[in-house]
Amino acid sequence: MIFSFSKAGFSFANNVSLSSSRAVATCTQDSTNAAESFTFPRYANIRSVEFQLSSVSGASSITFRITRDAAGDVALTDSITKTIVTGHTTAADGSVVVDFDKDVHFMTGINVANNIFVVAETNAGTATADILVNWRA
Hints:
Largest sheet: 5 strands, antiparallel
Distance between the termini: 16 Å
Helix content: under 10%
Oligomer: single chain
Structural class: mainly beta
Number of helices: 0
Strand content: over 45%
């Protein structure tokens, strides 16, 4: 049987403070800050993760992984380090985007319903991130 996707969307975390200490972002529906966002589906294929950065100060890269749990202990991906792409008009803005093709299935007792988590840190300095986990379901 071939599974086909019937929905595409993203789960969102707003104003995540990043530094050289790990931060855990809960990505889910946020109708206030991203009206188009959705809760994370029970069965999905993660297509990409986007960090939309502001107030970048002293940071040149972000290391992150996607996890099933809020503690950040049950990883779905390896840790990935990417250089921040500096904004074209504003050096204090930037972004990091990583493409994936990762199937994720809900696991009772580990996953938190409707959420996916991103554990992230900067190499130095600080930044504020809006994080999007883009998926198909």
